[in-house]
Amino acid sequence: MRIASLSERKEFYSREFSLAKMRDWFRGWHSPIVFAVIIGRHTNIAPRKYLRERARTIVIDDYEGLSELKDYLIDFRPESVYYDRNLYKDWDQARRVGNKRTGLGRAFGQELVFDIDPENFTCPIHGTLEDKMRKHQGLSFCRLEFQLARQEAVQLVEILSRRFRQINLVYSGRGFHIHITDEETISWNRKKRLALVRSLTKKGFVMDEWVPAGGMRLIRLPHSLNGLVGRVAIPLPKTEFGVFDPITDERTRPKFLLR
Predict the structure, then answer these.
(1) Please, how many CA atoms are within 13 Å of residue 96, restricted to the half-sphere of its CB?
(2) Model confidence over 187-230: pLDDT tens digits?
(3) Domains of the chain
(4) Count of CB atoms within 10 A of residue 142's CB?
């Protein structure tokens, strides 16, 4: 795993990024979809014309169809692409709220997502997240930490499946995102979301409550390139939850890594 260069990002979004797969991901989503990119906050690389904006979160809420969104991605060549989990009544509301750093805000609902990152697990070799931060290794992780994250994701899906029916597990390029799309959860307020999160942490699950509680409304876009590690974010079928390996799985490896 390594950082994807600007030319590699452009190649991916020009030749590999699948609009069909993205449409399939948003099937049944009737709210306006707001996207966002970060060009180079962590990698510190960006096209010359966007150097000043490389660390910003750039909201994309003005586009005519997904083909134009693809044009934006080819132009920006971002390290990360996200979508807004909030559900909005119309485009005017999406644009009013979408450009503010809010969670649920004035949206009428939000997709429920859990975020499991490998660096949050204590490693017998690399220590705690605090140890890694002191060494400026906060975003790095080893195979053992990834295996711990995968194990927790599998166990969490099992627990959540006892209560919810529509669950999708996505490999984010680094860790895992668990998307719950049961209709009842869309309208949950922050209090109800926090109650679920804290009930899970009491069971021993390691997670950041910021995402599922609604404080962070953006989530990585499935089928986009995670430029921090040069891997494609992909949804995973249930049969692969416990055995998935991003090092050997060719679905996660963009073509520029296969040459």
Answers:
(1) 11
(2) 999 999 999 999 999 999 998 899 999 888 999 999 999 999 99
(3) 6-258 (3.90.920.10)
(4) 15
